Amino acid sequence: MSKRITKAREGIDRKKVYNLDEAIKMVKDRASAKFDETVEIAMNLGVDPKHADQMVRGVVNLPNGTGRVLRVAVFARGAKAEEAKAAGADIVGAEDLVTIVSGGTIEFDRCIATPDMMPLVGRLGKVLGPRGMMPNPKVGTVTMDVKGAVIASKGGAVEFRVEKAGIVQAMIGKVSFGEEKLVQNIQAFVDAVAKAKPQGAKGTYINRIAVSSTMGPGVKVDPGTVGGATPNFS
Prior knowledge:
Strand order of the largest sheet: 7-1-8-9
Largest sheet: 4 strands, antiparallel
Structural class: alpha/beta
Distance between the termini: 37 Å
Strand content: 15-25%
């Protein structure tokens, strides 16, 4: 273990859960990289994603953005393509873009598609699927409101999807953000995950929450101190 990691862990009781304000302060104080580290959240949920009725997926607009500028691609034709360009999309195309992506060139972080483009975009499942970038109406990336989707993506919309072990992870800001902004982003994210509770979930839904920076140790958060619009996580 490096001296940097050992030093960063000083003062953190790995068995203790901290209130949200304390946890954020600890993460910020221990971020020592020469770049603006990303602040991340990990939530352990009481679900088994192998069952369709326990899948957790959604999107949330963080009130203070993520601090990262996403490159957005839009699959659209005609007026909708022009709408996407005007809204600030980085890449816009139809068959030509499908050909480029199918060849393995992916120069974007998120993609949006109009419904009529999905028969074409569906061919890219093997390329976009493993990267979690396949457009999906459930998270607002298959839509006729191209302008709104592009603006949301550029403005801090974060998609989330539970992984095999029942964990949801996401970036919720940068270390350079003020503590209040990070707290607000976390509250918004946890609230969105709480509202996405599937019908098949039994028992406690949100078991554990931890926050960390890119190069820093994880700090456990007491779910009861997160607040937000949905304080009851059972």
